[in-house]
């Protein structure tokens, strides 16, 4: 695998970052590079690495939203999780909106749509 360029935007000649162990937005552990699940790690420049983190948080929140509206157990059914997710979506949108060019990993319109959908759900108490 060529790790000399960013696999999101294609920039070369800058330091690259790969993702490994960590926690998702809701604090659950994940291992993106575990041998059983990912034999092809991806490398990102500093800007795309930050956008990859935003994308990961967005996907976590969207997955929990999907669980919530389908009646499954969801972190968004907890008042703290719901509030944190709402604030994080606003942060993600603000960051994407301030960028001079669109993110290669996450469209701000997708974030806006999820924000609107989350606003239609009653916040748990």
Can you put this structure into words, describing what you see?
This protein has three helices and four strands, in the order ββββααα. By secondary structure, the chain is mainly alpha-helical. The protein has one domain (17-119). It is elongated, with a radius of gyration of 16 Å. The mean pLDDT is 85.
Topology:
Blueprint: E1 17-18, E2 21-23, E3 29-31, E4 43-44, H1 46-69, H2 79-98, H3 108-119
Antiparallel strand pairs: 1-4, 2-3
Helix pairs in contact: 1-2, 2-3
Radius of gyration: 16 Å
| Structural domain tally | 1
Percent strand: 5-15%
Shape: elongated
Q: Order of strands in the sheet with the most strands?
A: 1-4
- State the end-to-end distance: 49 Å
Number of helices: 3
Q: Level of helix content? A: 40-55%
Question: Features of this protein?
Answer:
single chain; mainly alpha; two-stranded antiparallel ribbon; two-stranded antiparallel sheet; 4 strands; 45% helix
Write a compact overview of the structure shown.
The protein has helices at residues 46-69, 79-98, 108-119, and strands spanning 17-18, 21-23, 29-31, 43-44. By secondary structure, it is mainly alpha-helical.
